[in-house]
């Protein structure tokens, strides 16, 4: 306990500890440490070995469900993908080339979309209400995608930011303020390390990243800027540009983030910090887009996925069949949580700042389901088995309460639910959202049967999935 004090103070404290009744000495030491301006928080070196030893702040595992928001200049053409610029001008994919030739005059550049990113209907308070209604506990906004356009007035993105061009508003600040004032959601920011067509990045790439003009002048200053100015609790890095973490100085930045930044005690980070870091280094693992391993992982992970099956940004040409149904989204949520992950579900707003009604519907329906079944999601841990061996469904667990939750997605019309993994229940069996205990019969090593209430669809406690609460399960 003396290690945080200077050497002379450590000697004095040792003498006090030897001369005073031990309990009093301990109280004096504790008081000293609490009043010490430097405290005793761990310091991390700029190495992966040291950074990876940092415990993940506990709040992240408890919340389970977040909303991703992909919004930027790509929301103006809103065609095909948020990778519109790359597919049109670099890969010259025919649908994108034809779209531009048909709808825009010759010589129209991607930069010309900037002033058309108007956001006139963007209402941060309305967004906060919608996000809160979803049952999500954190939100991650794309502060800058690979196009390089920043949603705040970055001094490192001259004339290519939302304060100088288009909305002429600080989108990041407005949403951060509303989220913090109107909800209990944790606020996070996505940031792309690289930019497709930035001349400094292209110069470094042509030198096989032996020069570092782009991260020094652009990417790293932006990261320090958004952390200091907006204090996000999630920093979602992306887009390594095929460059190693040494090019980005990722370990140096993360050491500052964990040691000295204003969010050093609460911030969580992902694993996309350079070639070779994904699914290997960082606070939690994403491994790949739409990552859903289907089994328990030894490290905290996140499934980032999209309601629109084919795009992260808004698409005007999307069809109804392109959107995941609420049943499919809940299936993704419960499978992810049962295997120890968080679900980060993405929406793409329109260029004028609206969350399209189909996204609103999906978000609110997720919230409706979580209002009934949320206790089986928030604050849970993986159980000894993640899915049932007989009936399609998954398990979650609250150790302190000795409660197992069996989540099943198809209502048993027969009136009997067969569970293959719980062997014996010493406590109670209940259907969440329905009063009274349920009768059950042990099948020994084959599990158990549970008699579910005979309810009409209108009488069911919720749609899209149901939860049995089992206490003292063996």
Would you mind describing this structure in some detail?
With 474 residues, the chain is an alpha/beta fold. It has 3 domains: 1-40; 48-376, TIM Barrel; 393-471, Sandwich (Immunoglobulin-like), CATH 2.60.40.1180. The chain is built from 14 helices and 14 strands. The chain has helices spanning 7-19, 22-35, 48-51, 58-63, 84-90, 94-103, 124-133, 171-182, 199-206, 213-230, 245-248, 250-259, 326-338, 357-373, and strands spanning 65-69, 138-144, 186-192, 234-238, 268-269, 301-306, 341-347, 393-398, 403-408, 416-419, 429-431, 440-442, 448-451, 466-471. The strands form 3 sheets. It has a 7-stranded parallel beta sheet with strand order 5-4-3-2-1-7-6. A 4-stranded antiparallel beta sheet has the order 8-9-14-11. A hairpin with a 4-residue loop joins strand 8 and strand 9 (403-408). Helix 1 (7-19) runs antiparallel to helix 2 (22-35), helix 7 (124-133) crosses helix 8 (171-182) and helix 7 (124-133) crosses helix 14 (357-373). It starts with 6 loop residues before the first helix and ends with a strand.
Question: Which terms would index this structure?
Answer:
disordered N terminus, 3 domains, 474 residues, seven-stranded parallel beta sheet, 14 helices, alpha/beta, Immunoglobulin-like, TIM Barrel, 14 strands
